[in-house]
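agent> step 3/5: call structure_predict on target 'Dihydroorotase' (Aquimarina aggregata).
agent> reason: downstream docking stage needs a structural representation; sequence fetched in step 2, passing through unchanged.
tool.input:
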Amino acid sequence: MKVNSVLIKNVHIVNEGQIFAGDVYIENGVFKEIADQISAKSSDVKIIDAEGKYLLPGVIDDQVHFREPGLTHKATIETESRAAVAGGITSFIEMPNTVPQSTTIEKLEEKFEIASKTSYANYSFMFGGTNDNLEEILKVDPKKVAALKLFLGSSTGNMLVDNPEILEKIFSSTDLLIAVHCEDEQTIKDNTARYKETYGDDIPIEFHPVIRSEEACYLSSSNAVALAKKTGARLHVFHLSTAKELELFTNKIPLKDKKITAEVCIHHLWFSDADYATKGTLIKWNPAVKTAKDRDALFTALLEDKLDVIATDHAPHTSEEKDNVYTKAPSGGPLVQHALPAMLEFYHQDKISLEKIVEKMCHNPAILFQIENRGYVKEGYSADAVLVDLNAPWTVNKENIAYKCGWSPFEGTTFKSRITHTFINGNLAYENFKFYEEKHGQRLTFDR
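tool.output (status=ok):
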C-alpha cells in the first residue's frame, strides 16, 4: 500500500540495544521523526495504533536462494520476496547458483533487472566465483554488489572452486567481501561411497550429518580462515553447523573491525539430528543439521558474539523433489517466512533477548556488508520496519504458507508471535496475512 506518510503510535521500539516506548513518523520512504509523542502533520497521514506491539528494523537476510533464473518451478524472486515480507525480511542477498549462474557481469545484471520489476523486498545479489573467472571478478563494483560467493564444497554446475592456487589468487586479488560455503568435498565423497556400499541410494537420512560430517566442515572452514589470514582477505563463513568450528572465530574485536566473520542459520539453531526421524528429507540441508550439542554450542556462540549474523539459507525445492531416496533428494528448504517467528519463539523461551535478535538479524548484516541507510530504526534511514505482536499465536499450515513450493519444515508449529505489519521503504507491504501487491523493493547500495 503506497502512502506518503505513516504515523505509528504507542509502540515499543527495539533498536541499538534498547527498548523504548514512543511514536515513529515515516514520510517519503524514510524515518522522519522518532519521539515520545508525535502528532499527525496532516489529515492524509495513515495512523497505526500499535499499543502493546514492538517495532523492529526490517530483517536483512544475507543468504537466500530464490531460484531465478532457470529453476523457477521451485521459486521465483517474486514469490519468495513476497514470502520474505510476510516474515519481516525487508532486504535479501541472493546467491549466484542459478541457471545460468551469476558468474559474469552480464548474467548478474540480468538478475538485477528481474528483481527491479518483481521484488517485493529490497535486494542484492552475490557474484559467483569459479576456477576460471578471476577476470570477471575484478570487474565487479563493490558499491553495487553485496559480495563474492565461493563454494568450497557442495556446489552446483562448475562453481566448486577447488584449485588451491586459483583460490589463493582470488583471495589476494579482490577487495570484495568473500562469502564461503565450507564443506570438504573429498571427505563427503568418501563418506557417501562408504554408505552407498551398504544401502545403495536409499541411505537412511539420519546418516546425513555423518556423511557431511564435522570433519568435512572443519577441514574446509579452517583452510578458508587460514587463507584469509595469509592474504588479508575479508572473509564471511556461511551457515556454521558444528561446535568445533567455533574455535576459528573471535568475539574480541568489534564487528566493524573484524576481517573474519561467521553466520548461523535458523535450522541449525532449531533442529538437531533427533528430528530426522520425524522430518526426514524436509530437514536435509548442506551443511547438515547435526547434534543437540552442536546446536547448543552454536546458540551460546551467537549470544557471546563469536557468530555475527543470523540468516536463513532459504533454498526451496518442490515436495516431489524432496520425497526421494537419500541420494536423489536435494538439500535445502524454505525459511524466509518463518525465521523471525522462530527467533521470537526463542525469546519466549528466555534463550535470547529482543535486542539481541535485532542485533543479529538487522544491525549486524548492515554493518558486515556496509549496507547504506538500512538495518536501524533511525531518523533519515530508509523506513524498512516490522511490527510484531508477541502475544498473537498462530499455526503454520498449508493455507498460510506463502512459498511457491507450498511446504515448510515448520508446518504444524504454533508460534506465539505474529508479524502484523511489514514496511518496505515506508510502504505497507503486508498486514495480518494480507499482502499489498504493489512492489516497493529497491536495489541495495553499499558504503565502500
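agent> step 4/5: record observation. The two ends are 33 Å apart (CA to CA).
agent> proceeding.
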